[in-house]
Amino acid sequence: MDAIVKMLEKHQPFFEKISRNIYLQAIKDGFLGCMPIVLTSSIFLLIATLPGVVGITLPQPLIDWCNKLYNFTMGVMGIMVAGTTAKNFTASMNRRMPAGKVLNDGSTMVAAQCSMLLLAVTQFTTKFNGSELSVFDCTSMGTRGLFSAYIAAFITVWVYKFCVSRDLTIKLPKEVPGAIAQNFRDIIPFGGAVIICGIIDVVVRNLMGVPFSELLIKLLSPLFTAAETYPGLILIQAATAFFWFIGVHGPSIVQPGIDPIRLANQAENLQVLLAGGHPAHSLTFNMSLVGEFGGTGATFIVPLLLILFMKSKQLKAVGKASIVPVAFAVNEPLLFGAPMILNPYMLIPFVAAGCVNVSVAKFFIDNVGMNGFSFVVPWATPAPIGIFITTNFQLIALVFVAIIILLDAIIYLPFLKAYDKLLCDQEAERAAELGLESNGAAAIAADASAPAVEQTTVAAADSKPVADQPKPATDASTKKDVDGLKVLVLCAGAGTSAMLANAIKEGAAQTGENIASSAGAYGQHTAIMDQYDVIVLAPQVRSYYNDMKADTDRLGIKLLAPRGKEYIDLTRDPAGAIKWLRENLD
Questions:
Q1: 3-state DSSP call for residue 73?
Q2: Is the pLDDT of residue 427 over 60?
Q3: pLDDT at position 394, please?
Q4: Which among 82, 264, 268, 281 would be 20 to 30 A from 412, CA to CA?
Q5: Rounded distance between C-alpha atoms, residue 199 and residue 192, angstroms
């Protein structure tokens, strides 16, 4: 097992390079920027549909109003994603532009949305009350048009890069105000992007008889079908867990390519459910509630196993600290505290549990009558509750939840017990070395000296000279000035980052420091980052450090990126988090 982990560590830089791919980043961050659309529209949909499940009949005007809000949010999500993807892709491209040449992300955003409409939407005329009307077919404005949105975004930004790099712009005299001059500079690249997408639209429609969005769906339908088989679902889930195991945020790599499929399938499930049928798609957006039951690795039951069945102090402490966060799908305290990441004892269960869960889910949907997921619930919804809601409150879903909890416990328990034995042996050896006595008196003395022993170990293991190590402030005269400091903590979904941001707030209150902290998701930070003095990257987005450093250096912001266990320790030690901030401000 150690040989496997060493091999994975050797190739970790390659996997991190994949996760930093600017196209994948733009897709992930662009979709993340539109998550309020998904979640808000789902609320109105639930209001319109769920009362009928328990026999409550709402007034039809209220139902129509909720459906309108859903259609004018989720129904145009493809257009919005084209804009947010282009905006994020522009930010990545600007880091690679020559000095003094910058792409206007507002202009690329609008151009991508116009280009997406050309690729995905059909315009035709019809008669209504004797008058001829021009009509848009809205089918591909929503999730069905996501592939067109991505293509439009990438074409648009590349056209802008081509034009701006070569000064193919309309230049006005320097006396013209900057905002007006910028509008004229954007005319040529804007027109170029729209014309190219318009030409693609004409060619595809004349050769294939369908709009570009339908062409992609037609060509990729074999991939869609393959992804929804048992092997396809297992491969997707195994890849997600595998990447997380080696320390790379798995969903960032795997999900951008399948999100259009998952959202389209979930929308189709909803239509079937509302029509009284059986939603049969298993590869849906909220399938992550099953495959990532409690977080990647299906760790929902693990904290309870640690508390009830483990004997080592380390695992019992991790179980108590992580049981609440894991219930809400924030499992980083477990991943980095146990640890599970790059732990050879955990590789098999970490990958296998989610694969078993999605396989059982597909079996229940195909053979037992459980509904495929139809409603969208927030990612932090406790998985058992989310599964019950999104299957339209089926009792069979509760049976399914009980079964996968049992299966996950069976999968994890033998590996946890083997790892627990190792830790117990290590704790016993350490106790013997420190000369602990059964009456506990020596234990108190050992605890008092433990920090010094631990500090010596860290210093010896670190390759930096002692002089380069951060020196803790010992008195008021040596403290760094943190008055009015503003800290932004970033992770993948604003869950893990909230843990440290809250610890900093609590620590500031304890120590009387004037420090403000906020949590956010990487990808949604670009518009607000200049409002902060310090940005902290959580371990799950640490692979973006180099890209982030280019932005923070330009803005004069301090960038910090603590590693896994260090980060988790800081979330549990508010005063220590303040001390850590002060020590790292140079």
A1: coil
A2: yes
A3: 92
A4: 281
A5: 11
Spatial distance between the Cα atoms of 202 and 209, rounded to a whole number of angstroms: 10
Q: What is the mean pLDDT of residues 38-44?
A: 80
Confidence of residue 5 (pLDDT cuts 50, 70, 90): low
Residue 223 CB neighbours (<10 A)? 13
Across the chain, mean pLDDT equals 82
> Across the chain, which distance is largest between two alpha carbons, in Å?
97
Could you give the CA distance from residue 198 to residue 309 in angstroms, rounded to a whole number? Answer: 63
**Contact at 8 Å (CB) between 286 and 42?**
no
- Taking residues 386-397, report their average pLDDT: 92
**Is residue 219 exposed (0-12), middle (13-18) or buried (19+ Cβ within 10 Å)?**
exposed
Q: Which residues contact 304 (CB under 8 A, 6 or more apart)?
A: 319, 323
In this structure, how many other beta carbons lie within 10 angstroms of the beta carbon of residue 307?
16
Q: How far apart are CA 155 and CA 190, in angstroms?
A: 11
Q: Among residues 29, 18, 143, which one has the least CA distance to residue 75?
A: 143
Q: Which among 324, 327, 298 has a CA at the least distance from the CA of 404?
A: 298
Please count the other Cβ atoms lying within 10 Å of the Cβ belonging to residue 485.
Answer: 22
- Which residues are the active-site residues? 491
Phi–psi pair at 98, nearest 5 degrees? -60, 155
Terminal Cα distance for the chain, rounded:
41
Distance CA 454, CA 434 (A): 13
Distance CA(290)–CA(437), nearest Å, equals 47
Top mean pLDDT of 45-49, 84-88, 441-445 is at 84-88
pLDDT at residue 451 greater than cutoff 60: no
Quote the pLDDT of residue 450. 40
Q: Residue 296 phi/psi, 5° resolution? A: -55, 135
Contacts for 557 with CB less than 8 Å, ≥ 6 apart:
529, 530, 532, 533, 534, 535, 551
Q: Backbone phi, then psi, for 127, in 5-degree steps?
A: -100, 135
Nearest 10 degrees: CA dihedral of 327, 333, 338, 339?
Answer: 120
Q: Which two tokens stand for residue 201?
A: 């639209």
Residues 6+ apart with CB under 8 A from 473: 479, 480, 579, 582, 583
User: Which tokens in the block code for residue 453?
Assistant: 């022993």
| Token pair in block for residue 288 | 């992550």
Buried-exposed string 396-431: b where 16+ CB fall within 10 A, e elsewhere: ebeebbeebbebbbebbbebbbebbeebbeeeeeee
Stronger pLDDT, 174 or 443, i.e. the higher one: 174
Length of the chain in residues, anyone? 586
Percent of the chain residues topping a pLDDT of 70: 85
- Contacts of 388-393 with C-beta under 8 Å, sequence gap 24+, read 389/46, 390/286, 390/289, 392/50, 392/53, 392/273, 393/50, 393/53
Predicted confidence (pLDDT) per residue in 222-273, tens digit: 766 778 899 999 999 998 898 888 766 677 677 777 888 888 888 889 889 8
Indicate the SS3 state at residue 490: strand
The yes-or-no verdict on residue 357 having pLDDT over 90 is yes
